[in-house]
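Dear H.,

Thanks for agreeing to be a second pair of eyes. The structure we're designing against is below in token form, covering all 455 positions.
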């Protein structure tokens, strides 16, 4: 059993090092919990997390971890928030901050929010509201602050944007509210004991102690789907798994390349539909045929045996593959060549370099209409109904989804096509009079499948 701890400014590293068996990670961010490093029987302690300027940890990522037989403990910061929301699904909440969220004392995530530098010391730049609440409770007990005054003071502090709640600003606001006695007492206590009211740190240490006691943790029941309940494993969850839980990086991009540029991919996709659990095959006694009958009716079964009519099925039944399943990944990438993998790596690297050199730009600025026009040209179809049908044949639920898959390749693809056109023009100008003379292109020739291919 391994204990994985996701922690940042709530608990400095020296305190965590008192637990030498822990596997230390930084604050948790979107995708981290899909890591294969977290195995069945392990414990994940979630304290701090990245958000605001990056994608935060989603609830379904925690449900996924629980379903894999991993005990999840949450405390102090985003861990307390997520535990308050998911304790009914098996996540374990620890500490006063978790209790305050469970009982409605706090609702907003700014109560635990801390601004900090991503480089150097992870120490927070502001004082979180939960720590100030702890100080006010202690002040009331010491009779230097009244209960009503504490409520008014907390209401004033809540109106302050969280990064601005620096220690100096907090003291100034307390004095502006007329609570000078509490301000003096609070300042003296912190001078004598800087961590006196650090509730987040106290809760984190409580979570660490619990994790150490779980030598053989009782595994929570995997959050499944009871009869009549909606399945939490949505398409978004599958997309996150495809991005973060696959055996190799950029596997979803490699599949997208095959979907877009391999003329034979429609046959690969049809085989996938007939053998994938995502399309209902193993779950039905009659496999994919039974799934089509159930979803589209008995008439649609006749379309299965007519290649010309299969597009009616693929236009409607378009499951998202699970690339974390090696069998499905192997089936979908069976026509991939070493040259394909090299080109995907090259094109993605060129796009990354382009965006790094231009921080104000993003993939989202490549318009969907531009992508769909290029896709229509690659596939040799019009941009209307033919494009939509071809998307279905290639495993895309819509032209919008296909455009999103194409965006990371757009820059390098257009650049290579432009260079290839220029090379062809130069070759034509200098070519010998013999029309049978070879013209050696600099870019790979388009693969053809009947009348279709990419150009």
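And this is the sequence the design step returned. I haven't edited it by hand at all.
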């Amino acid at each position: 059993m391994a204990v994985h701890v996701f922690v940042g400014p709530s608990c400095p590293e020296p305190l965590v090092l008192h637990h030498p068996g822990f596997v230390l990670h930084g604050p948790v961010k979107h995708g981290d919990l899909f890591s294969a490093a977290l195995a069945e029987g392990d414990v994940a302690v979630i304290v701090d997390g990245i958000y605001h300027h990056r994608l935060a940890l989603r609830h379904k990522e925690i449900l996924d971890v629980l379903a894999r037989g991993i005990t999840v403990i949450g405390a102090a910061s985003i861990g307390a928030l997520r535990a308050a929301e998911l304790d009914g699904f098996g996540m374990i909440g620890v500490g006063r901050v978790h209790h305050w969220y469970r009982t409605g004392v706090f609702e907003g995530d700014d109560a635990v929010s801390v601004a900090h530098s991503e480089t150097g010391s992870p120490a927070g730049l502001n004082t979180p509201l939960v720590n100030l609440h702890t100080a006010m409770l202690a002040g009331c007990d010491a009779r230097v602050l009244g209960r009503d005054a504490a409520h008014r003071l907390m209401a004033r502090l809540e109106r302050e944007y969280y990064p601005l709640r620096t220690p100096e600003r907090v003291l100034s606001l307390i004095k502006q509210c007329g609570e000078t006695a509490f301000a003096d007492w609070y300042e003296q206590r912190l001078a004598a004991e800087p961590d006196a009211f650090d509730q987040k740190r106290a809760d984190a240490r409580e979570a660490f102690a619990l994790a150490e006691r779980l030598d053989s943790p009782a595994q929570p029941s995997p959050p499944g789907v009871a009869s009549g309940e909606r399945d939490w494993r949505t398409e978004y969850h599958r997309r996150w798994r495809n991005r973060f839980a696959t055996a190799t990086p950029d596997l979803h991009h490699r599949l997208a390349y095959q979907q877009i540029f391999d003329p034979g991919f429609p046959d690969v996709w049809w085989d996938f539909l007939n053998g994938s659990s995502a399309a209902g095959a193993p779950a039905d006694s009659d496999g994919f045929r039974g799934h089509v009958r159930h979803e589209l009716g008995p008439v649609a079964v006749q379309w299965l045996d007519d290649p010309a009519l299969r597009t009616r099925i693929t236009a409607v039944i378009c499951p998202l593959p699970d690339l974390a399943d090696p069998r499905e990944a192997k089936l979908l990438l069976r026509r991939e060549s070493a040259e394909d993998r090299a080109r995907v790596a090259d094109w993605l690297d060129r796009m990354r370099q382009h965006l790094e050199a231009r921080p104000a730009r993003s993939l989202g600025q490549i318009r969907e209409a531009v992508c769909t026009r290029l896709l229509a040209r690659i596939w040799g179809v019009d941009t209307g109904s033919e494009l939509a049908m071809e998307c279905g044949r290639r495993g895309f639920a819509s032209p919008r989804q296909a455009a999103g898959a194409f965006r990371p390749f757009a820059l390098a693809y257009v650049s290579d096509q432009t260079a290839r056109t220029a090379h062809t023009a130069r070759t034509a100008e200098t070519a010998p009079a013999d029309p049978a003379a070879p013209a050696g292109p600099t870019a790979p020739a388009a693969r053809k499948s009947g009348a279709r291919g990419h150009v």
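Two observations from my side: The chain is about 50% helix and 5% strand. The longest helix spans residues 399-430.

Warmly,
E.
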